[in-house]
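FORM 12-B: Structure-to-Sequence Request
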C-alpha cells in the first residue's frame, strides 16, 4: 500500500495526542502550550480525511499529553501540572466545559523527573466501568470508577497502586478480556503485568524492555498488543530506539522474543493496523513514520523499506475509511 496525504490542519497550536470517536465522525486532540494548554474538537470526514475545527477548551492543566473519549465524555491527562480532567461532549461533537479535575500532589525519588506529579495517561478499561491513570511523577496508578452519565461525578477514585520507586509509569494496555493490565515504565524500561479484577490490581509478573548490558538512559514510550492477542510490543527511545516483542502466554505472562531497530530516533508512539499485518512507528526526532511487516506466527517485525516523511510525529491512529 501507499500512504497518501489527504489533509492537514492549519493554525493549530502544538497538537499532540489525539483520539477518535467510535463513530469516526470526530477527533479530539491535546494542544500543549504551558498555561494556555487546551484540547480541541474537529469534525472528521473519514472518506476524504478532511478535518474541520469545531471548538476548544482550556485543558484545566498544563501540557496535556494524552486524551481519550467515549460517547459522552472526553478525559485528558495533564502532564506538567499532574492532573486528570474530564469534559462532557455535546451532540454536535463539540467539547463542553470541564466537569471534574483530579489534582495530584507529591513526588518520588528521581529528582529530575519526579519532583512533582505527572499524569501521563487516561485509559478506559475494556468494559468502560473504570478509567486508569498513570502518574509518572509519583510512581502510581490511579483507578477511577466511571459513570458516563453523571453530570458532576463521572469519575470517583476506586484505588491506587504504587509501582517500583523511580520506574515512572507511562502507558498501559489491557488484554481483550480486561483481566490483565500491562504497564510500561518510562524511566527504567520495566513492564509490569497485573491481574485486574473489577478495578483492583494484583502484580503478576515483572520484566523489562532493556538489554541486561544496556548503559545509558532508558526512555520507554509506547505499548500495544497485536489484534490476535498473541504478542505485546513496547518502544524504547533514548539511545536504544528499538521495539521489543514479547509472546503472551496462555496465563497472560510475557516471554521475550526479540528487539528490532525502529530505523530512526524517538519512537514516541506506534500503532498496529486492525488486520494485524503492519506496525507503524512514529520516530519523533527523525521526522518519519516507518512501516514494519508483522509475522503473525512469530511476532517478528521486518522493515518493509517504506517510510513516510512527516514532521515530528507523536500520535498514530487508524480509522475506518
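FORM 12-B RESPONSE
SEQUENCE OUT:
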Amino acid at each position: 500500500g501507499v500512504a497518501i496525504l489527504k489533509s492537514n490542519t492549519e493554525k493549530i497550536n502544538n497538537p499532540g495526542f489525539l483520539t477518535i470517536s467510535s463513530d469516526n465522525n470526530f477527533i479530539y486532540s491535546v494542544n500543549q502550550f504551558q498555561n494556555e494548554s487546551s484540547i480541541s474538537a474537529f469534525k472528521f470526514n473519514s472518506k476524504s480525511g478532511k478535518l474541520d475545527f469545531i471548538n476548544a477548551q482550556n485543558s484545566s492543566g498544563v501540557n496535556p499529553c494524552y486524551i481519550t473519549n467515549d460517547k459522552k465524555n472526553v478525559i485528558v491527562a495533564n502532564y506538567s501540572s499532574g492532573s486528570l480532567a474530564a469534559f462532557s461532549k455535546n451532540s454536535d461533537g463539540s467539547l463542553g466545559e470541564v466537569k471534574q479535575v483530579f489534582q495530584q500532589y507529591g513526588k518520588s525519588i528521581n529528582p529530575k523527573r519526579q519532583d512533582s506529579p505527572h499524569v501521563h495517561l487516561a485509559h478506559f478499561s475494556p468494559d468502560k466501568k473504570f478509567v486508569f491513570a498513570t502518574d509518572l511523577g509519583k510512581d502510581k496508578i490511579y483507578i477511577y470508577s466511571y459513570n458516563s452519565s453523571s453530570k458532576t461525578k463521572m469519575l470517583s477514585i476506586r484505588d491506587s497502586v504504587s509501582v517500583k520507586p523511580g520506574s515512572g509509569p507511562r502507558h498501559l494496555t489491557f488484554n481483550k478480556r480486561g483481566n490483565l493490565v500491562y504497564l510500561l515504565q518510562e524511566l527504567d524500561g520495566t513492564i509490569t503485568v497485573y491481574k485486574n479484577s473489577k478495578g483492583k490490581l494484583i502484580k503478576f509478573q515483572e520484566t523489562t524492555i532493556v538489554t541486561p548490558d544496556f548503559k545509558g538512559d532508558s526512555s520507554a514510550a509506547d505499548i500495544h498488543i497485536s489484534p490476535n492477542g498473541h504478542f505485546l510490543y513496547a518502544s524504547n527511545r533514548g539511545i536504544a530506539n528499538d521495539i521489543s516483542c514479547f509472546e503472551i502466554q496462555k496465563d497472560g505472562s510475557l516471554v521475550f522474543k526479540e528487539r528490532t531497530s525502529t530505523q530512526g530516533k524517538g519512537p514516541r508512539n506506534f500503532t498496529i493496523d486492525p488486520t494485524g499485518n503492519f506496525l507503524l512507528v512514529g520516530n519523533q526526532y527523525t521526522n518519519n513514520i516507518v512501516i514494519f511487516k508483522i509475522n503473525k506466527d512469530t511476532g517478528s517485525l521486518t522493515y518493509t523499506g517504506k517510510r513516510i516523511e512527516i514532521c515530528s510525529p507523536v500520535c498514530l491512529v487508524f480509522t475506518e475509511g
